[in-house]
Structure formats: structure tokens, C-alpha cells
Amino acid sequence: MPAQPVIYTALPQGDTSGVLAGRIGAWLVDFVVIGILWAIFAVALVILGFLTFGLSWMLLAPLWPIVAVIYSGVTVSGPARGTIGQRMFGVELRTTSGQTAPFIVAAVHAVFFYVSISTLTPFVLLFGLVRADRRMLHDLLSGLIAVRRGT
Questions:
Q1: pLDDT tens digits, 11-65
Q2: pTM for the full model?
Q3: What are the residues whose beta carbons fall under 8 Å from the beta carbon of 45, sequence distance 6 or more?
Q4: Of 134, 62, 138, 149, nearest in space to 106 by CA
Q5: Cys staple from 90: which of 23, 86, 107, 149, with CB 3.0 to 4.6 Å?
Q6: Euclidean distance between CA atoms 46 and 42, whole angstroms
Q7: How many distinct helices (H) and strands (E) make up the chain?
Q8: Residue 118's domain spans which residues?
């Protein structure tokens, strides 16, 4: 017997009103937060590099994406269901069934976001404008939906 396909249904339209503007503002705030975290870890790695004869300096190049993915994964999969910026702008990310995203799903969502934003800018936003549920490509690929907080 063939396996039944999983059909994801979006949350009601009212839950997604205004999330695109909130997500843009949230991205700007999160960019600053990730920058601060990156600077703290970069200074620590530079100092540690003197103790490890420069070995820790090899982590400086991939440090930004590592910090960004872990930050997004931890905050989105946490009880607040969103990054600091998303919480400030009243946006939270959920699975399409309304549950909190597991860490790995939230981290993969962040990877999809950064890949899509670096290759499709500004078209990544246009994708959300044409969909009734305001989901972007990286949301669809990871099975998440951005909704207004508290709905």
C-alpha cells in the first residue's frame, strides 16, 4: 500500500496579516544581534588563538554563518518561537500544524533563508507577496509559517 502524502495546510489568513513588514524589521534587528554575538566570539577566538598557536583562528571565517544558524535555531525552537527581532515585531514561527519547530528544522530554515536571501534578493520578498499565506520559499522548504504573535 503506497504511503499517503503529507498535506500541509496554512493557518487562517488573519494570522499572517502584516508579517512581511515585521519580518523585514526583525531581520534588521537580528542582523545587529548576530553581529554583536559574532564580535564576542571573534574576540574570544582571537585571544584563544594565541594559546592554541593560531588553530582557533581557522574558525573565524565560518564564524558568522555558524553564529547565525545556531542563534536562529535556538531562538525559533525555544518557547518564544522566534528570534529577538521577531519577538520585537510581533512575529513567531510555527510548524504548519501550529507546533514549536524542533531545533534542526529551525536551523535548516535559517540556512534556507540565508541561501535564498543571498541568491534571490529582493525576489525572496516578492515570493511572499504573491502567496495568500505570506510564506516565503524558505518557509515552504522547511515546513514553517510566520504568524502574528498571540494568534
A1: 544 588 889 899 999 999 999 999 999 999 999 999 999 999 999 999 999 999 9
A2: 0.85
A3: 56, 57, 59, 60, 63
A4: 138
A5: 149
A6: 6
A7: 6, 2
A8: 16-148
